[in-house]
Amino acid sequence: MRAGLHTGKRLLRSIWRGVREWCGDAAYERYLGSRAQRTATPQCTLSAEQFYVEQLNRRYSHPNRCC
Amino acid sequence: MNKVLSKLVWFAVALLGAGALGKIALQRGESLNAIWFVLAAVCCYLVAYRLYSAFIAAKILTLDDKRATPAELHDDGRDFVPTNKWVLFGHHFAAIAGPGPLVGPTLAAQFGYLPGTLWLIAGAVLAGCVQDFVILFCSIRRDGKSLGEMAREEVSKRGGFIAQLAVLAILVILLAVVALVVVNALKSSPWATFTLAMTIPIAMLLGVYLRFLRPGRVLEASLIGVALVLFAVVAGQWVADSPSWSHAFTLSGIAITAAIILYAFAASALPVWLLLAPRDYLSAFIKAGAIFSLAAGILFVRPSVQMPALTRFIDGSGPVFAGKIFPFCFITIACGAISGFHSLISSGTTPKMILRETHARFIGYGAMLLESFVGVMAMVAACAMQPGVYFAINSPAGIVGATPEAAAATISNWGFPLAGQTMTDLAHKVGELTLLSRAGGAPSLAVGMAQIFSSTIGGERLLSIWYHFAIMFEALFILTVLDAGTRVGRFMVQELGGRVWKPFARTGWTPGILLSSGIIVALWGYFLYQGVVDPLGGINSLWPLFGISNQLLAAVALVVATTVLLKMGRTRWIWVTLAPMAWLVIVTMTASYQKIFDPNPRMGFLAYANTLAAQVAAGKIPAAKLADTQRLIFNQRLDAVVTAVLAAMVLVLIVEALVQWYALLSRRREPVLHESPYVMTQWAPDFAGAAHGDD
């Protein structure tokens, strides 16, 4: 019973994480994680607002929605 | 033992699929349950994925999980982001699934359910999925390069330029035709017009929320937005019931055209966070929900398909669009079987986010299978309604007549019994003034979806709500294609213009933004306008033009794929991409020739123009209609020129490729692949993508 609950909880958590990744909710956290791994200069890191606008400008400058 | 069991299971799946296909192909004269369509499609997809895609992955592409992907090599947390394969599948599917797989099969249902269903399944398995998969692979091996760049490097410089021009041309025609579908869905419908109009302030509200209040919190903002949009669907009924509000939102085709053109210009020129992006978020959630609900509804209701397997219109005399089953069934289905536009997505964002090379099979091949399944569901929804009703909704008034009685008489004469009162009652039940001659596919699909949904929840009482929900869903994501496409077109125009005058290419320069937005909107707006004023309904000429251009782009993608396979030394296996390419070239060239030169005025652009010109010369056109007729003549000739130019561009590219292939096969030229150098992955074999955030 407890194992089942644990598995269910893990499954729900992965679905939740998947949905957040899919819709872009977790994009800024991912960006921060990537920055932390690759650079030691936090001054250059974009704020959440800057990142959001910059990301949209790049995403919508090439075909990203099909017919 | 396990191997034997596995083989037995796959044999059973194949047998079930063959049985279901046999059932839908051979059943005559009795109603057929929709569950057979689902079984046939799903079993074919499973077998194709298990065997054919595995064969391509292992034997031809030799996918290598030890090779680092662009997402690993260039991980910047922005463009290059290593992403879990299920999440990326969702991204990729949301990007490739547009209105095409819904509208195309709905229109192709005029031939009966059989040809369209077979092409949806076979075309996807043997052509569409292969194209998406191979192009995705090619782009992964080239640091996420675009189709145009790959064509330039692997085929020829001219090939790259042609691919770029073809993309711009298809974009213009695509935007015009999808806008026409929206116009025909909203025309004289205050409920639908109000609901869709409300999505603009809702999207702007979300834009402000996401930009200033909770930057990047897409999930919570989208849930608020979806709730508001659903409320707008319900509120639309109150608007339709109020005489004054109803009057304000009852717009003609021309008025809606003007509104859509203005909207797209604004969406292209305004900051992307204000309107375009939040609408896209709304659209993605509603699209996923509506597609899932349709699949669940079909499985729950299991409707009977009422359309015959083949109709008399396979001879080319169909009222929805003119043209024989070959080549026009394959042109009309378009994206549900193969779409050239997908190659832009497969060589765009997806290759930069893929974690492992082997994921390309699941994402490239698998997502296209799902898109094909959406097409099969649209076919079921269209064919589950009474055939007479289907033809009454989708045929232009110029062919069936302008009143319910006249339309019913014409359609009954074709062998599809229909009473005029049936159309009046149906329009009343779905809350519309009329459903007659609402060509474009969207209203008939909405009726089909509403009938399936209302059989699941609410019965006839909720038919009108479900109908307008379906219209809102279709129009919402068509507008997303429209505004995103207009913005991309704007960048392309700026890039091309920048070659002549450099400042024009600066994407942040306001006069350049306004001018390029104006140019791209004027280009597709012109085709949209000509479709709206066309007495044959517009869809008759524009949808085939869209199908031809989209399939020609697919041929371009397959030319690139075949060239890469040849250079990789896979000569023995090039039929995998060469056969679908040859088929597409035959289909599109035949269709292009017929659309330009066919002597039937309903079919051939030039014949129609000449017929009208002869009527003008003979003085048969009243003076009041002379200017309109002259414009119609010009439009038909313009359509002929556009078709010819598209076909010529692709022929030039094919000739370039043939020269290249001959040189490679005769060993006159060394095969030079432009792949990025091999780098071994640093990730552990069980690494499934970085997870940040909630845990």
How does this model look, in words?
The complex is a heterodimer of chains A (67) and B (695). Chain A has 67 residues and is mainly alpha-helical. Chain A has one domain (2-59). Chain A has helices at residues 2-23, 27-38, 48-59. The radius of gyration of chain A is 17 Å and the shape is flat. The model of chain A has no long low-confidence stretch (mean pLDDT 86). Chain B has 695 residues and is mainly alpha-helical. Chain B has a single domain (2-189, 250-665), classed as Up-down Bundle (Amino acid/polyamine transporter I), CATH 1.20.1740.10. Helix content of chain B is 71%, strand content 1%. Chain B has helices at residues 2-26, 35-60, 70-73, 85-96, 100-108, 113-140, 147-155, 157-186, 190-213, 218-241, 243-249, 253-269, 276-301, 325-333, 342-346, 359-383, 387-394, 397-400, 404-413, 420-429, 442-456, 463-500, 510-533, 539-567, 575-597, 605-617, 626-665, and strands spanning 32-33, 304-305. Chains A and B meet through α1, α2 and α3 of A and α4, α8, α9, α10 and α13 of B.
